[in-house]
Amino acid sequence: MITRIFILLVLLFTNLFSQELIDSHENSLKVQPTPIHFNSLCKSVVLNSANNSISITAENDNEIKSVNYLNYLLKNNFGIEFKINPDNEVGVVNGWVIKFSIRKENSFINDQHYRIQPDIDKKQIEIYSASQLGLLFGVVTFLDCVKSENGLIKINLFNVDDWPEYSRRIFSTVLKPDRVEEMLNYALLNKMETVAIASRVYSWFQIDSEYQMVLDKIKNWRDRFGGPEIMQSHNIYEKKQIEISNQKDINRLKNVIEAGLKIGIEKIMILADDTPPFEYHNGYILTSDDDKKKFRHMAEAHCYLINDLKQWIDSNSYKSEIYYVPAFYTYEDMNYGDMELYKNTPWENEPFRLLKRDLSYIGANMHKDVYIIWCGANVRSRKITIDQIYDWSNNLNGRVPFLWDNTIYSHHPFTSTPLFSAYSNKLPGDFSKRTAGNGMFVNGNADSEDSKASMITVNDFLWNSSTYDSLKSIQNAMKRLYGEESAKILFEFKEKELQFRKKIGERKLWFEADTLWSIIRKIRYIHDKNPFYYHYNYTRMKALRLQLKNSVPEPLTKENFINEILLLEKQRNDILNRLELIDKKVFEKIKPIMLPVPDFNKIQ
Asked: Whole-model pTM?
């Protein structure tokens, strides 16, 4: 009798806590980037309604951190958590197991390569990778297999074999303390490799209190979950010019850098772009007397600094890559402007001689493991050719440059906001193999609401450029971020907002082109067409002015202009009012993006 009761109890608990395998018609994944290879087993594991749980095995700290992140996502999305390494607990009888493991395999393309392999006979789903970051990306894809239907949790079974084409995918953001958790989660959910803290937000010479708060929150996240990787960025001419011959200044910089290294930050970028001192005949210059005594030019000083940082990092057993942005990072220079315009003039030698001197010295003398940044031939290079890569590599004495991509700003007239637009550039098909470090730095602010979806599309491209579909990518990103109904409204808002900005910009440009013309004419009468190369530049400026003026339609009367702007303003507000009814949180995020109505008294 006792034996029969015991058997009945075993059967009862086995049925109550076991999971059921059912047929499934799910054959697609919505995660971005889309995995390289995946196929559905046409089966789903339905968790029991008693505890909606499944057991997970993980052995080391990095595997457990990845499980912690899965539970973080499960709790946020479904209000459940899975148990790690349960031992003879009621509720795991005859159950499925998810196995997490970090291991090296010769077949892995890179360290972020991960696989998800269900085994129906073993009742096991294995998620494994060569690295903790790859395991986290596996978690994100696995989450897309988890669904909630009628109060039950089911796991759709997919074989997944996935890896990124570009291993270094660095996304800039203005990271504030209250945004750290959301931004790091955003990066992982979209399989971004590195979040870069923008360079001009915090000081290079002291640990700002807000920066320390950011680092503390990053540490807290990493202690729990691990990735993504982090880049700290420091512009050594922002707020205070560095004196490289002064050991105190170098120590100040090291002190700030070390605050990040102590929490395991993997990348450092030192920038000398846009802000260093400049003289026309001497290029980018040293200003301190002691620097001038010790170094022949800025390039030599920067090599000394970067090499010293590299030696210091290595000697202290820190593990961090170094990236360096030189003063010359494109032919469209901050001070010289478009260097093409110097060709065939008496001034042709001026910018090119100094650019080639500095970059050649840097390429020859900066530590070989440092990545040297460029932006392509232009600040916003929408197209890069193999010849341009060879040319810039030649400037760097044979070193291959690492691309800093500014083109997220360049999609629409009269605005630099991405405004929910997809990444779309012309790069060589094998560019991932031609750029240093198999990577790209994406400039912008990933925490800006009008940039988040656009950044996701860049990462889609970097994950698999051969299958990248810009329209599909931006549509999927918007749906995932805001939901399908809100995404449709936001695309409507985008078109009205662009019309609004363009209408204002065109009118301003038309009248300012006349102001420009009055200045150009004054210069023409000063030199009276002589020497001839002055006249040559005058005619080029004349052509430029005419291009600008005639690139826009002749303006309406001011009264008609005001009426059109007010109509567009009403249409924008009507669209956003519809959004507010659907999702007030999204509405509050989008409203600050709107360009204000101009002061009509100040518009011609």
From this structure: 0.93
